[in-house]
Specification:
By secondary structure, the protein is mostly helical. The protein has 6 helices and no strands. Its main location: membrane.
């Protein structure tokens, strides 16, 4: 009963999708490297693409309300936000390690906090936002 009430919040669903995506990414990486002897960089790239597709479908159909926007347009927006998140991740790691001189794990902690918030806000208020006209009709 309590669990169900928490699932009405998109940020909780977004976190669940994020955890699932992390598991899929690591699972694909390990599977490809250990069983199929795929180089790690290639394997993590494939894992990223698989995770991107799975998390897009889950966020579109479960985390956020349907917006009525075409899935192709939404997917390209999603791809853009994820790419910006990747660049933000790299920039934050570079700044913490090379400019500030902190250990890389502190940079990883910072990026683990900042990048998901960045991506969530863009997902919620740009990609999967419900048009204001529909919001007024619902209230």
């Amino acid at each position: 009963m309590i669990r169900r009430s928490y699932l009405k919040y998109p940020i909780i669903k977004y976190g669940i999708v994020g955890l699932l995506g992390t598991g899929i990414h690591v699972g694909v990486l390990v599977l490809l490297v250990e069983l199929f002897k795929v180089p790690a960089v290639t394997a993590t790239t494939i894992g990223f693409v698989v995770t991107l597709c799975v998390s897009y479908v889950l966020n579109r159909n479960w985390t956020f309300e349907p917006t009525g926007e075409g899935s192709r347009t939404q997917f390209f927006k999603y791809l853009l936000v994820c790419s910006c998140g990747l660049l933000l991740n790299a920039a934050l790691m570079y700044v913490t390690i090379h400019w500030i001189g902190w250990p890389y794990l502190i940079g990883e902690v910072l990026t683990t906090i900042i990048v998901p918030i960045h991506n969530y806000l863009w997902n919620r208020y740009w990609i999967f936002s419900v048009p204001q006209k529909r919001q007024k009709e619902a209230s």
